[in-house]
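Researcher: Let's try something more involved. This one mixes different molecule types, so please make sure each is placed in the same coordinate frame as the others.
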Amino acid sequence: MDDRYWDREVETAGRAELEKLQVELLNKTIGRARNSAFYKGRLPDRIGSLSKMSEIPFTTKQDLRDSFPMGMVAVPKEDLVRLHSSSGTTGRATVVYHTKNDIEGWAELCARSMYMTGMRREDVFQNMMGYGLFTGGLGLHYGAERLGALTIPASSGNSKRQIRLMCDFGTTSLHITPSYALHLHTVFEEEGVDPRRDLSLRIAFLGAEPYSEGTRKKIEKLYGLKAFNSYGLSEMNGPGVAFECTYQDGMHVWEDSFLLEVIDPRTGESLSDGEEGELVFTSLRREGMPIIRYRTGDIAAVYRKPCPCGRMHRRISRIKGRSDDMLIIKGVNIYPMQVEKVLMDIPEVGNNYLIEVDKVDYLDTLIVKIEVRPDTFHGQIRELENLKKRITELLRTEILIHPRVVLVEPNSLPPSEGKAVRVVDRRENL
Amino acid sequence: MASQVTVFVENRPGRLSKVTRVLADNDINIRAITISDMGEYGLINIITTDPDRAEKVLGDKGFTVTRKQVVGVLMEDKPGALANIAEFLNSKEINVSNAYGFILKEGTRAVMILEVEDFNTVEKVLKKGGFHTLTKDELHNL
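Model: All components are placed in one shared frame. Result:
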């Protein structure tokens, strides 16, 4: 028996079959969404084909905020069983509600995603994401239980206990943020535990922050496991929207449950496969709070090329940035995340940097400020100049702009915890 | 083996005064000081009476600071003394990345501080050549 697929029929469905299913589910979704205050009068009666999607207006984050608290709910309140809410650090929180079926559908997608990476019933899954209003923790928790794996709801933090749990219960798979994985490894060293030798880890799900291919490789090497990228957003449940298969080459979007479009963030026009643009999603199976043509702000490219794993669900690249963060420097589009990924991979830099954009002699200039920390400082000018050169070169390769790298004293930049401001555009003040 | 305290500072007003004030407040005497200026930033190199404590107090104040092993050569304070050392180093094909000196209180002798890549070898070579290189304690007690 072929055990590569959790749901063979859906996962290996052909494109025509998938698109037919999408039109059918889209029309059902439109019918349900009309029950909400927000979508009432906003939607066409029926969509005959996917090429007619542009007849439907987009839904934005602002729409979600304006609909607070229940303007997008499409079912009676008593049918709702759960809500998740954004942290709402800027403006009003966005809230997403789920019915019992929604929670089950979400768990099913998470189980399917995890199964796709090779996780099985025999696995022991340690979920190191925060539980609570954040969707990352509960999403994969339900998925792992549905898959049948023994699940440890460790939640985040308490590094020594995390290591203890891994040792005691023979953890084989982890759900962890990449930065915490790197940090935790230093605690492993202190505790005298070698994750490669002393543990049975084989799979890690990395998520919730941007990270580079280099960081993935590093984590795989440090822990002796395979690390998988995932993509999700709370407006589309949370994790389980797109996941990597064992080929680790782009993330398959579950197109039986989400309708994916890519648009030009400036004009709103649809882009073809392969072109980089903003991802737009429509929930296809959700009852409690259907969301149609939601502008994610996430920039990525979509690939239709068949995957050797046999799944026809299209793949998306790593998220390159957020459309609202985009900087135009010397006419080139740059996402701070691109700079971030390069810098995070340089051990001497880590989280200690600030990106500034300024006009110098009427020319846009990208300035990257790096703190020189005691642990990487050896009093050698040559070493410091080499570091500057290395950063300049790596950034130039990634963003095609020659940045000015400036070394600064420690603690002169805003702290790296939480949502620190990492980009300052001084051109606006001119 | 002598050691020098090296501090990373941004090139903006008040940094040198901050560094030296921290040392003064901790009763640490400066024997010699040089600054390598790189434009946006600089390295302040300091020979003090107590490098261990100097490194610690500057680190505690949030400075990026490190200790560097350097070679301290004792010499007569007279014309040609430094030329002798320089010629000797040249004859041994030893490259010096930074050098600075100071005269001792008694007024007859001086100390040359040499930053070199392979300080252990350089120190041995100098000793063999008849030069007096200073230990940490000697430098401290001068």
